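Notes from the pairing session

We agreed to fold both candidates in a single pass and log them together. This is the raw record for the first candidate, unedited. Please don't reformat it; downstream parsing expects exactly this layout.

Candidate A
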Amino acid sequence: MKLSEFRFAVREEFGEMKGRAYLRDLSLAGAGGLTAEEALEAGFDAGDVWVALCREAEVPVERWHGRGRPERD
């Protein structure tokens, strides 16, 4: 997942304000307790950060590939 796709998916799934708050404030177990912003800055793959964010925010699995994007196998 490209960073631009990640940002698009965050906006589509959570909205502008809530998405920004989640990126900044939500600690991600799948990223060693870092926030999404910290994980991306540390070099984590955007797709891995997206999945970790979805898990923490309890996004249904069928939307883990990002709203508006085709599902992958």
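Candidate B (folded immediately after A)
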Amino acid sequence: MPVRQSLESAQKLGLDLVLVAEKATPPVVKIVDYGKHKYEQSKLKKDKKPKAQDVKGVKLSPNIGEHDLQVIVKKTRSFLGDGDKVRAVCRFRQRELQHPEVGKRKILALVEAVADIGKPDKEPLLNGREMVVVINPVSTGKNKDVKAENPQDGSKEV
């Protein structure tokens, strides 16, 4: 259809003539509402952006109980399963600072429990009164199939 004729039909409908594929022979145009077309294009651009990886945090102490540590392991596995990084912080109080190896053992136990789906950037570092380690998910993207395992009986949580 000639350009003049398509312009006239667009004006009759109260819409705009939008060039869709400039490099095609002949060029492809659409009769649409330009504002709506622009909005849809911006929505498509937003949807194509990859999700930024979040850093989730878990806190523990050097004298944390075994069950409480398992709860933190479960939460960490959930975060790693969603594709997020996990920042594990072991906070020391006054006299606990004299034995940082106790806190390091707890953090390493956490890292070891999630070793199949996450690995640490580096060794836990003591920074002031906190010992910190960042655990990255092993695979990129979301692992929705990974569920928290119960270490006592080996069953998976549903």
